[in-house]
Amino acid sequence: MNLPKRHNILMVVTALAVTLFFGCESNFKEVQKINFSEFVPAGDTDMATTKYTDSGRITGVLISPKMLDYSNVSFPFTEFPKGIDVTLYDKKGKRTFIKSNYAVSYKNTSIIDLQGKVKITSEAGQMLETEQLFFDQKNEWFYTERKFKLTDVKGVSNGQGIDFSKDFKVINSQRISGEIEADE
């Protein structure tokens, strides 16, 4: 059985194409492996307790069931996938309590992103609840653009967008509604 010359050339070209295709796929997978860097934490801690100090004075205590340290990446951060419980102390020893279901602390910016049922309570009885809140550690300032509920001895207010000092002495809120007792 003699096949036409054109048919033989087609079979040879097909065989070469298939060989090249599978050869390139194999090399491509190896190239992918070379460029792949595994994203794993430098540290993994269960039941973490961290105390923050300034000149020998405790300024904060952070407790978390799980802490992942990503200090080995180009934009280092620490992740708390199971939430945090933080107590902040001012210079007079007054405390502010913070709880959230999830948190990420960015080392280069000193910003902490708190997410999921965030609740902040002061010793004076003020309480703020929201779904996401940022804390600027350098300026000791909280802020969010999310909806919030602020409970105070003077009343309850709701709104969207708020920023305030960690001791609740300065509060700037946006789109607020509620009933608050006014000073006479």
From TrEMBL:
Q: Name one GO molecular function term.
A: lipopolysaccharide transmembrane transporter activity
Query: Which terms in the GO cellular component ontology are assigned?
Result: plasma membrane
Q: Which InterPro entries match?
A: LipoPS_assembly_LptC-rel, LptC
Q: What is this protein's name?
A: LPS export ABC transporter periplasmic protein LptC
